[in-house]
Amino acid sequence: LPRQFYARPVLVVAKELLGKFLVRKTCDGRIVARIVEVEAYGGSDDPASHAYRGITERNRVMFGKPGFAYVYFIYGNHYCLNVKTETEGVPGAVLVRAAEIVDGHELACKNRKLTSLIELANGPGKLTKALNITKTQNGRDLVKSDQLYICGAKDTESLAISISSRIGIKTGNDKLWRFYITNNKAVSR
DNA sequence: GAGAAGATCTCCT
DNA sequence: GGAGATCTTCTCA
Question: Of A1, A165, A27, A188, which is closest to residue A83 (Cα–Cα)?
């Protein structure tokens, strides 16, 4: 997807990312995952966002150019993948919460030490593990990288999308900023 | 420099 | 359904 796609309001980009293909290439092979669940995070208007209290060493990607990957480590165990949206200087990112693996099952299973296809990436921590995404991917340019990027899909406009409040946060629950493909089995929970 | 919380997962009952 | 694992980052003294 071109830079233009990401350089729009975070809520718009979040919804349009559903059904798109996340591509991960390493020396071990290629994995393609169809995005089925996302959440939007804002700036000073969103207490649940890392960017709520301004720029820090960790969240500086959220204030940079659109189309870059924001990856952070959480709970001493997991990485979460976000996509920077909005324009440069305006914080906003989409958390990719779940996806269904459509190519590279074997490698994804190996990364997760698991054989159940649906459970390979049905949660943010699981997804990064299945795709071997770690902190080294933080700050990567999704528009120019050949190791991590997102492709368009046909007919995403006809997708049935469900909306809810975000998961795992203690503030900002009033915002209905979680979007997922209705009735998709790879959605978390 | 210490203390606490965190955009989660897995195993156990 | 619930708690432990495990460590980075932020806040405040």
Answer: A1
What's residue A143's pLDDT?
A: 98
Segment A154-159 shows an average pLDDT of 76
Across all strands, nucleotide nearest A72 (CA–C1'): C8
Q: Which tens digits make up the pLDDT trace of A66-122?
A: 999 999 999 999 999 999 999 999 999 999 999 999 999 999 999 999 988 899 999
Which residue from A151, A124, A148 is spatially nearest to A37, judged by alpha carbons?
A124
Instruction: Please tell me the distance from the alpha carbon of residue A104 to that of residue A49, in angstroms, as a whole number.
Output: 32
CA dist A49 and A52 (Å) reads: 5
| The pLDDT value given to residue A189 | 84
pLDDT at A8: 98
Name the nucleotide nearest A119; use CA and C1'.
Answer: B9
User: If you average pLDDT over every residue of chain A, what do you get?
Assistant: 96
CA of A7 to C1' of C1 (A): 42
Protein A153 CA to nucleic acid B10 C1', in Å?
33
